[in-house]
Design goal:
There is one protein chain. The chain is an alpha+beta fold. The chain has helices at residues 3-6, 45-48, 52-64, 82-100, 105-110, and strands spanning 16-22, 25-33, 38-40, 43-44, 71-78. It has a five-stranded mixed beta sheet with strand order 1-2-5-3-4. The protein is elongated.
């Protein structure tokens, strides 16, 4: 590994940046040391992602790296639904965390946090009801 990849990329305000993507959602994430406050589009994470499954999905990078409650997260998310937005936020947090602490890369990469989940909705085809579902067949 070269020396450039090992250095942390912290800006003048003491934060790192990571872009996360999932389905149609894009999350812009800023991470800085703090008390574990997560702000999503100006609202608290628990308020924005009311389902507990989505909250645990967002916090996965911190729990894997044993850094829960050590960083404040500020992010803006655009596009998609709540599930895609939570996945995008998880991806962005992972990238920003690796920029702050490069030694965490191997832990997060092994868990699949650094890879963008490329699955998206299949397009609807002509002559079909949905992507693959055809219209009901009637013999008579």
């Amino acid at each position: 590994m070269s020396e450039e990849n090992v250095q942390s990329k912290v800006d003048s305000l003491g934060r790192t940046y990571g872009t996360g993507r999932r389905k149609e959602s894009v999350a812009r994430v800023w991470l800085k040391p703090g008390k574990g406050q997560i702000t999503v589009n100006g609202r608290n994470m628990a308020e924005y992602f009311s389902r507990s499954v989505l909250q645990t999905l967002v916090l996965q990078p911190f729990t894997l790296a044993n850094r829960l409650g050590r960083y404040d997260v500020f992010c803006t998310i655009r596009g998609g639904g709540l599930s895609g937005q939570a996945g995008a936020l998880r991806h962005g947090i992972s990238r920003a965390l690796v920029d702050y602490e490069p030694e965490l890369r191997s832990v997060l990469k092994a868990a699949g946090m650094m890879t963008r989940d490329s699955r998206s909705v299949e397009r609807k085809k002509y002559g079909l009801m949905k992507a693959r579902r055809s219209f009901q067949f009637s013999k008579r």
